[in-house]
Specification:
There is one protein chain. The protein has helices at 51-59, 71-91, 101-112, 118-127, 136-157, 164-182, 195-221, and strands spanning 20-25, 31-41, 46-50, 223-226. The chain is of the alpha+beta class. Strands 1, 2, 3 and 4 form a four-stranded antiparallel beta sheet that branches. It has a single domain, classed as Orthogonal Bundle (Triger factor/SurA peptide-binding fold), CATH 1.10.4030.10. The radius of gyration is 21 Å and the shape is globular. Helix 1 crosses helix 2, helix 2 (71-91) packs across helix 5 and helix 3 packs across helix 5.
């Protein structure tokens, strides 16, 4: 039995001129007007979230309709991007090496693996304005995601210590009951045989808890303004 990691899936008035960013160029020479949907500020720097950002986010999610996207999906993407912007603002405070080309390629391959085919993935990218998976603008977005991943790994995961007692408690209270529910009548694997998986699960559980606490505190400190409801 593999243990499923816990996934983390998240008032400042601005001049009216930021509502329209202007004519932005997308794939195939299309011209379209983008708009700022929300802003996230830490008092020193402001991050914009545009309608295109929401569409790009939805394009990376399998089985989500893009044309037209639903209000529910757009708002879910907005909440996720607000969380990402809060992490990005915090990550800017720490020096880091930029994402390498192999790291970007590996991340793109990971995203592609969630879709039925690479062709389907690229089709969705093209539908929101990218020319291909090698589009520099798309690679820049992936590089930003990698920067956030690195920050999360450093900020939340690297300092977690899982003790033998933690392993035993998780095995007794979570692993065993869940295994028996899914596999009635089957002998439960020993703690020793599943230790690595249990350590990973406890680690991810604590990372999720710490991230939730961080986001709650960050949202209280930040200025988050929704300028154009979706």
């Amino acid at each position: 039995m593999s243990i499923r990691g816990i996934k983390i899936g998240l008032r400042l008035a601005l001049p009216a001129c930021v509502l329209l960013i202007g004519m932005a160029s997308f794939g195939y020479g299309q011209q379209m007007v983008d708009k700022t949907v929300a802003t996230v500020s830490d008092g020193g720097r402001t991050e914009l979230i545009t309608y295109s950002d929401l569409k790009w986010q939805l394009a990376l999610q399998p089985n989500v309709t893009l044309n037209p996207p639903s209000s529910e999906d757009l708002n879910r993407a907005l909440r996720l991007l607000i969380d990402q912007k809060l992490f990005a603002l915090e990550a800017e405070r720490l020096p880091r090496d930029p994402a390498t080309k192999p790291e970007i390629n590996a991340k793109i391959n990971e995203l592609v693996s969630y879709f039925p085919t690479a062709v389907e993935f690229e089709r969705r990218l093209k539908s929101v304005g990218f020319k291909s998976v090698s589009d520099p603008n798309f690679e820049q977005i992936i590089a930003q995601r990698i920067a956030i991943d690195k920050y999360l790994a450093f900020r939340f995961r690297s300092f977690i210590v899982v003790t033998a007692d933690d392993e035993a408690q998780y095995y007794k209270n979570i692993y065993v009951p869940e295994f028996r529910r899914q596999h009635p009548g089957v002998i439960v694997p020993s703690l020793a045989s599943r230790r690595a998986e249990i350590v990973d699960a406890v680690t991810e559980q604590r990372v999720a808890q710490q991230i939730e606490t961080f986001l709650d505190e960050a949202k209280r400190r930040a200025e988050i303004v929704v300028l154009s409801p979706v």
